[in-house]
Amino acid sequence: MTNEGVDNSKRQFLTSALTVVGAVGTGYLAVPFLAQMQPSVKAMAAGAPVEVDISKMEPGQLLRVEWRGKPVWILNRTTEMLATLPTVDKQLRDPKSEESEQPASCKNPVRSIKPEIFLAVGLCTHLGCSPTFRPEVAPHDLGEKWKGGFFCPCHGSWFDLAGRVYQGVPAPTNLEIPPYRYVTENQIIVGETNGENMA
Which of helix, strand or coil describes residue 167? Predict the structure, then answer.
């Protein structure tokens, strides 16, 4: 059998057209499978965990990351900063963090898993403003009772270096401590715990 009288251009056009139609059809079939692999809308709204490397943090340094659309502070507290914590207990509204939100592993005097590394959601518990980090002791604008901490410029709430709220300010509770866990000595995942509950 010979190929005389066969129009090769039509054959090539039909082959190309079928290839395009096949590729489009494959795409339509693949979309539902790929979409199924994406996180649900509920999971995306909750916010994925955030991994943070703290290996290069200097003593006294504050690092800011974002989790669930909120600022999260990571503070590398110095020995001097930790020493101020018990000295302000009598001035605090909830020194033992009994009315505050934190993982069970952080319900302690320093409100953290490791004493030197402190994490908190950087939003005032009054109306959600973001306090400023004021590590200096007794600055002229805050007075000699100030031992370092977080000051909310919106309405004047004070928090110590463990995020505990002072008495007589608008904020009703201590700063929230997000769920977090250590993956390694210097890697933290914000948004996950080791299976513990929030206290």
Answer: coil
Class of domain 47-190: mainly beta
Cα–Cα separations (whole angstroms), residue 36 to 30, 73, 124, 141: 10, 34, 38, 56
Q: Identify whether the C-beta of residue 193 lies closer than 8 Å to the C-beta of residue 101.
A: no
Other Cβ atoms less than 10 A from the Cβ of 165: the count is 30
Provide the 3-class DSSP secondary structure of residue 45: helix
Residue 19's alpha-carbon distances to 13, 16, 34, 51, in angstroms, are: 10, 5, 22, 44
DSSP labels for 72-132?
EEEEE--HHHHHHGGGGGGGBS-TT-SSS--BGGG-STT-SSBTTEEEEE-S-TTT---PE
List the structure tokens of 80: 């001097």
Helix (H, G, I), strand (E, B) or coil at 32: helix
Burial pattern 72-101, b for ≥16 Cβ within 10 A else e, equals: bbbbbbbeebbebbeebeebbbebebeebb
Dump pLDDT digits (tens) for 57-90.
999 999 999 999 999 999 999 999 999 999 999 9
Sheet of strand 70-76: strand arrangement: 62-67, 70-76, 117-121
pTM for the predicted model, two decimal places: 0.74
For 123-152, the three-class secondary structure string (H helix, E strand, C coil) is CCCCCCCCCEEECCCCCCCCCCCCCCEEEC
Q: Which of 105, 86, 83 is nearest to 188 (CA)?
A: 105
